[in-house]
Each structure stands twice: as structure tokens, then as C-alpha cells.
Amino acid sequence: MRIFGRDESLRLLTGTRNGLVMVRADPGLGVSALLAATVAAARAEGLPVRRIPVLPTGRTTLSTGLPDWPEPAVVVVDDLHRADDATLLALHELADRELRIITGRHRGHTPARFAALDRIALVHDLEPLSRDAVRAIAGDSPLAEGAGGNPFLLSIVDSPDRAALISSWASELAGPDVTLLRCAALLTEPSTVDELGAVSARTAAEVLAGLDRLAALGLVREHGGQVWLRYPLVRADLATTSVGMRGQVARALVRRGSAPEAVAAQLAGLPVTAWTVSWLLRHADRLAAQPAPAAVELLTQAVAWLPPGAAKLHPLRAALAEALLWSGQLDQAHRVAAAGLATRVALPLRQRLRTTLARVGLARLDPEAVLAALGPERRDGPLAAIEAFGCLLAGDLAGAVTAAGHAEATAADHPVVAVALLNLNAIGKLLTRDLAGALDLLDQAEAHLDIEVLDPAQWLLGRLLRGTVEDLRQDPDSLKTLETARPLATTLGAGYLAWQRTAWALAAFNRGHWDEALTEVEQALATPGDAYGMARPLHGLAAILGMHRGNLPAAREHVRLAEQAECRGVAAFYEHNVLTARAMLADLDGDSAQALELVRTLADGGAGVHHGHSVTGVGARVVRIAVNAGDRGLATRLVATMHRWTSDDSVGQRGALLYCQGLVDGDVDLLLAAAKEFAEHGSPIAAARAGEDAARVLAASGEPEAARAAYQEAITHYTGLAATGDIDRATAALRAHGVRRGATGPRRRPKHGWDALTEAEYRVAELLAEGRSNREVADRLVVSVRTVHSHVSRVLAKLGYATRVEVALGFQRRH
């Protein structure tokens, strides 16, 4: 008889010759099947077998005394937790005979009754099945995970009657506590003892006693007053078969003052009533700002239920449009808001609907749609703040300032407007490189959002702005900050996600996480169309990466695609990166005239939305191009612009200015100081460039040993980044000055073995050797779990290993 995942347990039971074996497990874990397989194995050995059933009353054939059985023999008792005390006493005495006594019982059922037997028995606890056993039973069923390795649940996971079967199974086990179990299944997890008491009409003491019984059956977990059902599949199916209780539960939650989201979860899917609409009117705004699927469904039902022209219809339709917007359903949000505007609604609701339409345009990074949605009322009240953002998207800084001025008049009465103005002003500070001032404004905005304002878009904007400012300051928290924005950006989708991916990729590139940056770029560009206008800067970054790594054909293709893409919306704030990529490629191709023409365009203010922002953002790269091409005047002009706009509190900007001044003056001390500062603050590519340029100056000055030292340091940084293109170019440039890499210097990385690992991959291997999970590695390295998964796959491939354990063992052998 085949028992999936229980081979070891079966060998234990069949290998025991005499004495008592106690198999303990939660219901559904397969005790009965295991005992049946044991009986079959014993009969195959030719041993006498006695199966002792336990009657509903608890009595067995052992209740009236000890039987006279032949010895040796096998005695099997299932459901021992139901047996009477006389049976337990008899088993205690039978344990001294030449008998193999195998019993099965529920693990947590009145354990004190079995303490004496457990002391003399070989106790074997059954645990949930392994992944391989789960796959053998349920195949690739998407529901298998929710069964928690329970063989019974897995056996019916794809049954058309699964919900009824599971509900019946759980209800029979729960007995008098079935109502409590169903209430726990209906409530949002984790539910609380107080909530369960309110919805089941029980006292706290009664709830706790019931939970103890349900926990003993393995159906629930309770800790610190919080309650979870053990199996997600049981929870889902109990909720499905308990729909009739939802109205009662909803009203109980309302009486208790529970969160509106919890009440909405119960009301969604039920027939709409006048009571539902009245309750929904009081809580629609909150549900719209933080919309769970149930809230969207409930608002949709209510809007469809109300007759056209009903007074209650208009505010609920406005709330529905917002809920659809904040759940990423942009087309539906636009349709509902437009339908609301087609009716006669009061001014506040009309402004609210226009705001939703404009925010759909913002989500798509489409300034024309934003400004068109605001209509003739754009200067009225809170609409002016939205207009300011629309002007920013269009690159109209003057228009943004004017609109923000109109919005200020209403900021005192509209907290959302106040937050929007703080974020707008933070953008202004960022553009003028007052990074400390930008962070102060973002702190104020976050305080409002934490206390009194529910606005997902402003929260997300604040995260993106903070991460960008931190990146400019070379703050190591920049990636972590931008990563916190990912869940909401993913939910809202469209341009928000494309923008978040672009900001994250740039920060990852600056921090030296090039593989992750390239993965992010590829995923963002996989968006249909032009990645909501972000294709241009994304292709620009991919081109720069290609040049650093020596893949010029790929770099040329990305530059070509960047030039074809339209510069619109947020992408305009990254235009200096695109121009720099084009200039770098022209420089590498030996077209100094074209490279200088592009750099002059930047110096003359022809790229981006703000001259100072653009020049300081890429100054280190374009000054280098100008110096190498022999145009010291152009380089000096760029450095002067950087001096004007550089923030004293920014390590990154100070380092870039130091480096650029060193380039213009040919000052090796400044270049080496810049290289040291870049390296110390986590900008390896900038450190490598500064070191390489210092080596050139030293070599030209007749100091070959000092040049070689600076050169080797630069190559070390380049090697860690797998920047093979930079290594080749630096080697050729220094060789022209008679400086060569020593025999012990860095070598081109092999394709296989430990030396093939990049710096990032080696760090992942080191953390795996410490026994860390992918999530723990991601938290330590401040990257996504997806990125860690990619690293682990590459580590395994390069090392020729199949498992993480082999990586750990291999790492330990090396150290």
C-alpha cells in the first residue's frame, strides 16, 4: 500500500517488534491510512492482527477486561482519543506482553489523559507532508498550498464538491464550536478574541475555551488574543459555505465599532439594502482611499442598486471612481468619473470627479490628459494643486509655480492640498539641489500622511522623491526607500510603476548593483508601448551599462531606441541622462565633435527641465568628455554651473565637484581624494573613474609607480562591477603611458568557479552559507527578493551546484 510521504513512518511502525507505539497527529494528517498500511504489512508477514474499533460511546473490546490473544501479534487502535479510561488502562497492562500495539490519536485532544501511556510508549508525531509528497498527491494544483500539507485536504483539493466536503469535515470536528470556527473563517485574519465574542455572542471566557478546543484539533492557532485558521483552504471554504452569516457578522462588527474595511468584507456579495447604503455613505471616503477588493465590489453593487438621480448615488459614485483609481483600474475609474460629471452634481462633487479624471492622467504620466480633465475649474480650490503637477509633467515650471500659488489659498482647509504643496515644493528644492530643504519638506508631508491624510498618490510620490534625494546624497538607504514604494506602485500600475522602476534602476546603478539595475530596466521596458514615457531614460541607462561592460552593439541599439522614443512627462526630468549616453557613445566611437556638441547642448540648458539639475546630475561624466576632447573652456563652464548648484550637505555632489575640479586642473590630489570619497560612500563606478583619471595624470607626470597603484585600485572597482569595457579602455590608455597591469594584478573574470562570481553574487553566496533565506538576504543587501533569486540561480550555475546546501559547504571549504 502506497502512503505518500510516510515511508519513514511506515518503516518505524513495521520495524517495531514489541511494546506500545503512540502515533499522534492533527486531524487529516493521515493516521488512519498509515495504520491501515501497517496492518497490511503485518498480515503480509503472517502475523495475527487485531483491529480494535472505538465506538461513539468510547467503549472498546478492552473496556471489559484483557483478552486472551496469541503472542506475538499486532494490535491496532485508531481514534484512541475517543476511547474510555478502561481502554487506556488495559493498553497500559498489555504493553508488557509480546505484542506490537500501535495506536493513533489526535495530538492535542485532552493530552493529560494520555500522559501515562506517552511515558511508556514510543511516541511518533506525524507532521504535514513534504513538498514532494504534496506534488505526488495534488500535482500542480494551485490550491495545494492552502492545504498546508494535510493529506485529507490534498486528496479532495480539486474535487467539484470540495467546499461542501471540507465544510462538513471541519464542522464535524468542531462539534459545538462550529459557529465560532465559522465566524473566525469569515473575519479578516488575524481576528481577535473580542471580535469573535462580538460576532458569536459569546463571552471572552467562552471564546477562549472554544479556541482551546479548536486548537487541540489543529484547526486554529491562537496567540496573544489573535486567531488564525491553520489551513487557508479550510478558511476559504468555510467562508464560502457560511455566506448566510455575513449580514449578522457585519452588524455585530458595526455595533462593536470595528474598522469599515472589516464590515465591507462581510457586506460585499450580499444583496444591497437601505441599511447597507446608509452605512456605506458614512464610510465611503475611507474605503475609497484604501480600497480592498471587497470595498470596490461593495461600492460597485451600491452604485448599481441606486436608481438614477438618487441623491445618495452621486457621493457613492465619486467614491467608487476613487476606489477604482487607487486599486489600479484606471479605465474603469475614468469611465465612472466621466459618467458622474455627465450628471448635475454639486460643485464639491464635480471637483472631486475632475480630480479623479486628472489623477488617471497623472497615473499615465500624461500631462495633456491631466490639464484637459480639470476643465474651466482648474483654478478652483484643490484642483489647482493637481494643475501644478500637470504643469510639472509638461515641463512648465512657471505654470507649476502659478498653479501652486492658487492652491495655497485653500491649503488650510484641505489637508490633501497641503501635502501636495509640500511635495511640489520638495520637487523645487530637488531641482535647485537644496537636498536638505527637500528632505525637510518631505518629512512634513509624511507627518501629515501619517496623521490625517489618506492619499496613496502623494505617499508614493513622497517615497519616490525621498529615494531620489537619498541617491543624490549617496545615502545607502536610497534603494530601501525606493523598494518600500514598490508594492503601492505595483498596485496602481501604469506610469507609477514605470517611474518607480526607473528611479530604482538608477539608484541601483549608482550603488554598483548593475545586474539588478539591468534586470529592472528590462522589466520596465517589457511594458507595452513606451513604458508610459519612461522608455527614453530606461534605454539611456541600458546604453550606459552596455558601454561600461563593453557591449557596444547593445549600447548603440539602446541609444537608437532612446532617440526614437518621445520625451514626455516625468521622463523630461531624466533627459540629461539620455544626452549623456549619446555623448559617451560618440566619444567612444572617436567622434569628439559630436560628443562636444551634445555636451554644449547640456551646458547651454538644452536638456531637461532645469539647467542646474541637469548639469549637476551628470557633471562628472560630461566634464570628463570635455576634458578628454581638449575643450577646457567648456569643462570650466560646466564646473562653474556645478559650483552654483551644488548642495553643501550632499556627499555625492561634493565628491562630483571635487572630481570635476581635479579633471579641469589636472590636480591628482583632488582626483585621488574624490576617488577615496566615492569608494567610502558606495559609488564604485565614480571611484573607478576618478582613480583611472588620477593614474593618467600621474603617468603623464612621470610617476609610473604611483600611476600603477591608482590604476590597480581603479581596475579593482571595475572588476567588481564586471565593467569589462572600462577595464579594456583603461588598460589601453595607461599602456600608452607605459603603465601596465602587473602579473599579480586583476584578471578577466572566468566563466565558472568561485572566481567567476561578481562581487554581488559572492556576497549572496556568503549569506547563503550563513543559512539565510532569500528574504533575509534581500533585507541585508537592500534589494528585492526577485533579485536575490536571480543571483542564487547564477551562483548555482557558475559553481555547478544544484542546491543552496552545496553553496554553503563550498563556501565553508574556501574559508
List the helices and strands and how they pair.
Blueprint: H1 7-15, E1 19-25, H2 31-44, E2 49-52, E3 73-77, H3 85-94, E4 99-106, H4 115-120, E5 122-125, H5 131-138, H6 151-155, H7 162-174, H8 178-186, E6 191-192, H9 193-200, H10 204-216, E7 220-223, E8 226-229, H11 232-240, H12 246-256, H13 260-267, H14 274-289, H15 293-305, H16 313-326, H17 330-341, H18 347-363, H19 367-374, H20 383-393, H21 397-408, H22 415-431, H23 435-451, H24 456-472, H25 478-484, H26 486-492, H27 494-510, H28 514-525, H29 535-548, H30 552-564, H31 575-588, H32 592-603, H33 611-628, H34 632-645, H35 651-665, H36 668-680, H37 684-700, H38 704-720, H39 724-735, H40 759-769, H41 774-781, H42 785-799, H43 804-814
Parallel strand pairs: 1-4, 1-5, 2-3, 3-4
Antiparallel strand pairs: 6-8, 7-8
Helix pairs in contact: 1-2, 7-11, 8-11, 9-10, 9-12, 12-13, 13-14, 13-15, 14-15, 14-16, 15-16, 16-17, 16-18, 17-18, 18-19, 18-20, 19-20, 20-21, 20-22, 22-23, 22-24, 23-24, 24-25, 24-27, 25-27, 26-27, 27-28, 27-29, 28-29, 29-30, 29-31, 30-31, 31-32, 31-33, 32-33, 33-34, 33-35, 34-35, 35-36, 36-37, ...
GO molecular function, one term: DNA binding
Pfam families: GerE
Protein name: DNA-binding CsgD family transcriptional regulator/tetratricopeptide (TPR) repeat protein
Protein described:
Keywords: DNA-binding, Transcription, Transcription regulation. Residues 750-815 form the HTH luxR-type domain. This is DNA-binding CsgD family transcriptional regulator/tetratricopeptide (TPR) repeat protein. There is one protein chain. Among the domains are: 7-127, Rossmann fold, CATH 3.40.50.300; 159-258, Arc Repressor Mutant, subunit A, CATH 1.10.10; 346-452, Serine Threonine Protein Phosphatase 5, Tetratricopeptide repeat; 666-748; 754-814, Winged helix-like DNA-binding domain superfamily/Winged helix DNA-binding domain (Arc Repressor Mutant, subunit A, Orthogonal Bundle). With 815 residues, the chain is mainly alpha-helical. The strands form two sheets. The chain has a five-stranded parallel β-sheet, with helices on both faces. It has a three-stranded antiparallel β-sheet with strand order 6-8-7. The protein has 43 helices and eight strands. Helix 7 packs across helix 11 (232-240), helix 27 (494-510) packs parallel to helix 29 (535-548) and helix 28 runs antiparallel to helix 29. It is flat and about 110 Å long. Helices cover 64% and strands 5% of the residues. Strand 7 and strand 8 (226-229) form a beta hairpin. Mean pLDDT is 89; it is low at 743-747.
